[in-house]
Amino acid sequence: MMRNRQGMQLARNVGVILTGLLLSTCGPTSQLTPPGAVSVGGTGSTGTEGVEWVEWVYSKPAGVEFTRTEVTLGQFKKCVLTGACKEKNRKTKSDNKYCNWGYSDRENHPMNCVDWYGARDFCAWAGGRLPTEDEWYAEASNGGSREWPWGDNPEVNCECDQKGDSDTDGYGKDRTWPVCSKTEGNSVSGLCDMSGNVWEWTSSKYKLESDDMVLCGGSWGDDRPDSLRASLRNWYSPALGDVYYGFRCVRSLPGQQFFHLADLLGIDLIE
Questions:
Q1: Is 23 in contact with 60 (CB distance < 8 Å)?
Q2: Nearest-5° Cα angle at 76, 71 to 78
Q3: 10 Å Cβ neighbour count for 224?
């Protein structure tokens, strides 16, 4: 299925206007959110001492802060240890050899084989939430001006992403790569792996009447450049994880109100 281009463009145009209004009413504190490393779990969480670190990066196109990387196996393990994330929401290498959970040498690989609920719970624990599809697209495309996070060059190569190929997926690794392995493919704000490595869960429904949730970004198993375009959307049941699926988080700026723009406008994004 393809995007309803007119509906999506209208949503994004209105989104730019509303984002500007939000920033204009948030006051000076909205601008005082520079990128930086913060402890996963946030103030008041339990069991956060010694946890892996998450780096939040401000995205001007999206008007929110993203985690610079896809959430890693090591980070997700810490959430499970505190009880904020549930083991039932993830699979291990015992279930599928391509799941990263269970490998001692993949702490810095993206947490895959996690369902939407597990991704949602981690982001809430880390002080954020899952991005909407429009927020994700705004950053990955630099506000609609790029076909891929790194630009408009369709010659996707091993310096930009971790896609599959005709012989062995993941550029010969037959698995995911450590996060931020391909920095030449970074987005405009410096986010890693927005194309390739793992598809990323969003908080947006595929259809308003559907339970399926949208994923963006392509994965280590996709072997065509078109599969890694910023505009491409995937969908899956929120109760199921997959070896090609992972996530990253966002958090709103102080004073911002979070809403689903398509729901607010009553736009069906599917043709």
A1: no
A2: 135
A3: 11
Is-contact 208 268, C-beta < 8 A?
yes
Task: Classify the C-alpha dihedral 130-136-140-142 as positive or negative.
Answer: negative
What is the per-residue DSSP string for 203-268?
EEESSTT---EEEES--TT--SGGGG-TT-EEEE-TT---TTEE---EEPPTT-----HHHHHT--
Mark out the alpha helices in the chain (DSSP H runs): 5-26, 73-82, 116-125, 133-140, 261-265
Q: Are 71 and 111 in contact (CB under 8 A)?
A: yes
Q: What is the mean pLDDT of the chain?
A: 78
**How many other CB atoms are there within 10 angstroms of residue 271's CB atom?**
10
At 162-188, the pLDDT tens digits run: 555 556 555 557 779 999 998 888 999
Count Cβ atoms below 10 Å from residue 135 Cβ, excluding itself: 26
Closest to 134 measured CA to CA, from 56, 231, 270, 60: 231
Q: Is the pLDDT of residue 102 over 50?
A: yes
Q: In Å, what is the CA distance from 162 to each residue of 149, 235, 258?
A: 13, 20, 32
235 touches 214 (CB < 8 A): yes
- Residues in CB range of 10: below 8 A, 6 or more apart: 265, 267
Name all domains of the chain by residue range, CATH numbers in brackets. Answer: 8-259 (3.90.1580.10)
Mean pLDDT of the region 113-141: 97
Task: Look up residue 264 and give its two tokens.
Answer: 């607010």
